[in-house]
Specification:
Layout: H1 2-22, H2 28-44, H3 51-73, H4 82-107, H5 116-143, H6 147-168, H7 171-198, H8 203-232, H9 239-265
Organism: Actinoplanes friuliensis DSM 7358
Protein name: YndJ-like protein
Keywords: Membrane, Transmembrane, Transmembrane helix
Length: about 280
């Protein structure tokens, strides 16, 4: 039930907020359809597995497919924008991966042999580590241009990809992905914290961004501890405990607070635009 709530937050709150941060008229079709797909996907989570739940999950997948179509239609960016573009494309494609896992889980199908519970966690992972983290990492290239922001915009997608590949190959690859993703997320957190302390006159906005940054310092340690335990057999948190700690912290503390904070700060990822 907790994971379902987190996934619903990702569908109904985080992705729409992130799409507004893109501020790109070319994304309008995907942005307008998204609430339809998000509501259908969220409802599907609470229905018994079967044809109705699968059909609603498929409507969600249509919304994810529109994001992929928008991603493909984006023009080639100047070289200086490639790190940000890598992060944005990762964010836009992530809901499609989540949708594939959701359809399979709602149909009761063990996609690639994964347990149904793991498929639900995959849906959550690609809303927060995939969409929210990548988008905010890309946003940092607008907020604090420089090598650190570019590195974060590249390592967050790279870490997410490695974790995904690790699902199919080896736990050591998943651990490597967790380490790369953690390095990127800590860099993102440091950039957000610095910005919130020095450049935000509004106390509420600064608090939201500060919480978003501070959460990463702890939540990503949990991610590494879990991946390390899986790879080595050392004691590590259970998936249920990870959902209640790492999952809740990243969903509410990092993603929701971050999206609201950046919206209040007037930060956008549209080419040529920066914080107002």
């Amino acid at each position: 039930m907790l994971v379902n709530l987190l996934v619903a937050v990702g569908m109904l709150v985080v992705v729409p907020a992130g799409l507004r941060l893109l501020a790109d008229p070319a994304a309008e079709v995907a942005r307008r359809f998204w609430p339809v797909g998000a509501i259908a996907g969220a409802v599907s989570l609470w229905l018994p597995r079967g044809p109705v739940a699968t059909a609603l999950a498929t409507i969600y997948a249509i919304g994810a497919a529109l994001l992929c179509a928008y991603a493909v239609s984006r023009p080639i960016r100047p070289r200086r924008e490639w790190p940000a573009e890598a992060a944005v494309l990762t964010a836009l494609i992530s809901p499609a991966i989540a949708a594939s896992a959701l359809i399979a889980e709602r149909a009761g199908y063990h996609l690639f042999g994964f347990e149904l519970g793991v498929l639900v966690l995959t849906v959550a992972h690609f809303h927060f580590a995939g969409f929210a983290a990548a988008l905010i990492a890309g946003l940092q290239t607008r907020i604090a241009p420089g090598r650190a922001a570019d590195a974060a915009a590249l390592t967050v997608p790279a870490g997410t990809l490695l974790v995904f590949v690790g699902y199919f190959t080896a736990e050591a690859v998943e651990l490597a992905g967790a380490l790369v993703l953690t390095a990127g997320m800590w860099t993102v957190g440091w950039l957000i914290w610095r910005y919130s302390r020095t450049s935000v006159p509004d106390r509420l906005t600064a608090t939201l961004l500060g919480v978003s940054a501070a959460v990463l310092a702890v939540s990503m340690v949990l991610a590494v501890s879990w991946a390390l335990g899986e790879a080595t057999g050392l004691p590590h948190p259970s998936l249920a405990w990870m959902a209640a700690t790492h999952g809740v912290a990243n969903a509410l503390g990092f993603a929701v607070c971050g999206m609201v904070g950046w919206r209040r700060a007037g930060a956008y990822l549209a080419p040529g635009r920066n914080v107002r």
